[in-house]
């Protein structure tokens, strides 16, 4: 079994380093071939070690770091002044091939700036993109990108995102020809601004994609397409809105099932169905946005992620490492975009 090494920046996030302890324990217990490098201050790393069972310590090592990137720090400042930070060290380990991928719940802007600088983009990719899976009305999940790596995109960027998203969906879910759609304000040909219409034309010309045209916001979760492409500004708003709705639905169900005795009785009868709905809607299992288009694997965990959500981010990193996602994207880009 091939050894998998993950550099984990435990200093980022809103809940503190301790939130990773149970996630690390669960991952190391499930994957005996995984080794995690804790990039952190010595004190924080020791805290994690104290909470992880001793028989798993052989699968852990510490990369002590002097600096921590603050969640409010501007990306340019972090890039210039945080060279000894836990975030930078995790990326350096990937760049120097001492780790196969890294995971961080830290400052998103700083992580993207550092990752772009340290790892560089693949040939043929202008900008990396943040991508994540979302639930749909069917059993399958849909990939949405970009989620905020680049607020402003041109048509060429959207074409590159489409190719990368298609490759990721093929790799992770084994789909031969994922259906790719472009997010727009309507499905009609005349809808959208000039960038969207230009991107539509480029996507139609790309023979490497099964492009199905425009979809609207409410179609993201319909389960009829596999990859939805948009700019980072729109994608981030769509993601946060969907997370908010999911939390609202779950919280309202919890309130309603406790309001009256009859509601409590009915909820007990419906408990299996409610648990199934919760699992489908729970945002934790969709934590772990991939920063694709780089010469290395970088997973962004949500800043306010729970221990369970951190587990899923680490699991996403393992999956992409085992599937050699950057190499697959590189091959596809070179074949379909750079040769034409």
From TrEMBL:
Keywords: Acyltransferase, Cytoplasm, Lipid biosynthesis, Lipid metabolism, Phospholipid biosynthesis, Phospholipid metabolism, Transferase. The keyword Secreted does not apply. GO terms for molecular function: phosphate:acyl-[acyl carrier protein] acyltransferase activity. It is found in: Cytoplasm. Gene3D superfamilies: Isopropylmalate Dehydrogenase (3.40.718.10). Its main location: cytoplasm. InterPro entries: FA_synthesis (IPR003664), Phospholipid_synth_PlsX-like (IPR012281). It catalyses: a fatty acyl-[ACP] + phosphate = an acyl phosphate + holo-[ACP]. The keyword Transferase applies. Its EC number is 2.3.1.274. Pathway: Lipid metabolism; phospholipid metabolism. Homodimer. Probably interacts with PlsY. NCBIfam families: plsX. PANTHER family: FATTY ACID/PHOSPHOLIPID SYNTHESIS PROTEIN PLSX, PHOSPHATE ACYLTRANSFERASE. Catalyzes the reversible formation of acyl-phosphate (acyl-PO(4)) from acyl-[acyl-carrier-protein] (acyl-ACP). This enzyme utilizes acyl-ACP as fatty acyl donor, but not acyl-CoA. Belongs to the PlsX family. This is Phosphate acyltransferase. It comes from Agaribacter flavus. The gene is plsX.
